[in-house]
TrEMBL record:
The keyword tRNA processing does not apply. Keywords: Repeat, TPR repeat. It comes from the Bacteria. The lineage of its organism: Bacteria, Bacillati, Bacillota, Bacilli, Bacillales. The keyword Lipoprotein does not apply. InterPro entries: CellSynth/LPSAsmb/PSIAsmb, TPR-like_helical_dom_sf, TPR_rpt. This is Tetratricopeptide repeat protein. Pfam families: TPR_19, TPR_8. TPR repeats lie at residues 20-53.
């Protein structure tokens, strides 16, 4: 696909890569090494130099997906589809996958179906079918109109909340979540994220009471059970924590974000062997591209007797997220 950069003396011609290709090749090399910071830097430069090249943009979108910036990835893919609606059908599947991670299941279904319609024999045919099967379990038709009407604004809030929660910026997350709950009361995960941030900002009793009220009103969910198991454990009420964590023992959710929440819950409550199993089930998913994945996975490995593995996981996390290297290793704190 790319020309060699060596000099062909016999023909007295010097082949070379154009500027965009030069940065693109370096970006792809960095991506293969899982060095996402460098990959993003190189690929953004390639796009700047060749803004109409759809291949560069598609590859840059992969970087954003890998690092959990799903809406940013979709913005780029949408640009590709606007310029090349027929040539890059894979973009529809990639967008469907990103929407599923954002919790926008109706949009995920829409784009997965569009992909299968436009490229029924495509490379992602099997994955798109599996995604649609999973989405059937989360489809809530009563929320459909609301979701489409407010999608852009909701995504904006989700991106802000995601960043604050991942870096445990609880006081910064709380006002964003308060606005989000006021604007989107139909969006269920916001209130559980709010309780989580509230608890770790120091308002433990209020957070527990909120979760108990929601359980009483709406029944138990994975989110509420996870939160209460963690809250009671941190509060020193181990019996109550065990009561809730046992409810999760034989639960294996389909959605990857819930799998990660449960893995973290087992780690936070001291069930490191079970947490290790749950984290190992995530190793091929996008959820591994979260700060919390590396922190709690490495801690679980360490306390399960796999110290070398723990150091390897933590090192990988620090490479992907350099700011982690400024923190203590998780087993030094917990």
């Amino acid at each position: 696909m790319y020309k060699d950069s060596h000099v062909t003396h016999e023909q007295n011609v010097i082949p070379f890569l154009n500027e965009g290709d030069f940065y693109f090749v370096h970006g792809v090399k960095a991506l293969r090494k899982k060095d996402f910071l460098k990959a993003k830097k190189w690929l953004k430069r390639a796009v700047e130099l060749s803004p109409t090249n759809p291949l560069y943009k598609c590859q840059l979108s992969v970087i954003y997906t890998e690092t959990g910036s799903y809406q940013k990835a979709n913005d780029i893919l949408q640009e590709v589809l606007e310029g090349f609606p027929q040539e890059f059908p894979d973009c529809y599947y990639l967008m469907a996958n990103n929407y599923s991670h954002l919790g926008l299941f109706d949009q995920a279904q829409k784009y997965a179906e569009m992909y299968l319609e436009k490229d029924p024999e495509g490379d992602y045919n099997e994955e798109a079918g599996q995604l649609l099967d999973m989405l059937k379990m989360y489809h809530e038709p009563e929320n459909e109109d609301w979701l489409f009407d407010h999608e852009d604004e909701l995504l904006h809030y989700q991106e802000m909340v995601f960043q604050h929660m991942e870096y445990e910026e609880w006081n910064e997350a709380l006002p964003v979540l308060e606005e989000m709950m006021a604007l989107f009361p139909e969006h269920p995960s916001a209130r559980h994220d709010y309780a989580y941030a509230l608890f770790f900002s120091g308002e433990q009793e209020e957070a527990i009471e909120l979760e108990k009220q929601w359980v009483e009103h709406d029944g138990e969910s994975i989110n509420s059970t996870v939160n209460l198991a963690i809250f009671y454990h941190v509060s020193g009420e181990r019996e109550l924590s065990t009561h809730h964590i046992k409810k999760l023992w034989n639960v294996h959710p389909i959605h990857e974000s819930q799998k990660l929440k449960m893995a973290v819950a087992f780690a936070r409550t001291g069930y490191f062997d079970e947490a290790l199993i749950r984290f190992q089930e995530l190793w091929r998913t996008q959820e591994k591209n979260r700060v919390s994945y590396y922190k709690w996975y490495s801690l679980s490995a360490f306390h399960s007797g796999y110290e070398e593995k723990a150091h390897m996981i933590w090192k990988e996390g620090c490479k992907k997220y350099p700011e982690l290297s400024k923190s203590k290793q998780p087993w030094e704190e917990h």
